[in-house]
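Person: Show me a sequence?

Helper:
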Amino acid sequence: MKSRIPAIARKEALHILRDWRTLYMAFILPIIMILLFGFAITFDIKDLSLAVLDRDHSNSSRDLVKRFTANGYFRLAAEADSPEEIARLLDESKAQVALIIPQDFARNLERQEGGKVQVLVDGSESNTATIGTGYIESIFAGMNISLVREALARKGMRPRGIPPIDPRIRVWFNPEIKSTNTIVPGLIASIMMLVTALLTSLTVVRERELGSLEGLISTPVRKHEILVGKMLPYLAIALIDCAVIAGLGVVVFHVPFAGSVTLFVGTSLIFASSGLAIGLLASVVAKTQLFANQIVVLSTMLPSMLLSGFMFPIESMPKWVQAITYLVPARYFIKITRGIMLKDQPAADLVVPTLFLLILGTLVFTVSINRFQKKL
């Protein structure tokens, strides 16, 4: 066995070097995906288009508009002259938020009668509307505190206790609350899951279609030796891909890497083995290369994006969907990558997700061996 597995691995490596499509899939595709998804996917909402109908034209109304546009979350898209124009701007999606300031806004504030302001939000995109509403509430909360302090100061009172509770919030591990720092570690897991499975999904079925499998199965090489030998070159490629993708995340997207590189490489090796095992299983059970690719996409990319905690919190999913997520390897590697890159977690804290990856990879590889038949 010591000589047979390296021989098969060498044979597979030579095939990789001769096939430009495999090289493209192995080295170019991951880079394209991390750059494309890294720039395209973001949970940060900025530059919300704002339409303003200012019927007061006072310093107070202009100050309110300035508070909206000064923080980068809103940009002034239009100044309307009537409620009908506001409705048209929202209906045509030329404005996502509309601010309507009534007459006597400043005078009511001076008389401490309260200034009523109407804010309309386009709710057709619920996530954007929810985050935008939070920004709006924060702006008005800050303005209300400033007005109360000014009113108390004019009366000779010291507004030291306004607001009564002054929370001092500190965010750990991602102080700037940049969604990129959360997305990139998840992208590493999702991209590696897809690429590793795609690489090995064609190994067996391709030889079956080309007719070269007959010569291989006629040798005394055992089934597990064939599959292990075919997996080894792709495992080396997967580790290179993982290093390249993580490096791009740090250099291009400025994601911190606070943890151990050795621990990251070791856990990446286990995760890549799981992905390669899934690809081998698809290659064994499929009759054509197209069918093998379809199996891989459906079993790796979609679950990695939707059921791993990458895009949506697992805790907010229905219980029966949460149960399915335990079968998604990317779920565990996302926890590992975020723990290593952002939190500098030690190996002891990552034992459980690593064990789950080992168990899943071993089970899938065992099934692949059992399904692989040394016959045509």
Observations:
- The chain has 15 helices and four strands.
- The first helix runs from residue 4 to 18.
- The chain has two domains: 4-42+178-371, 48-154.
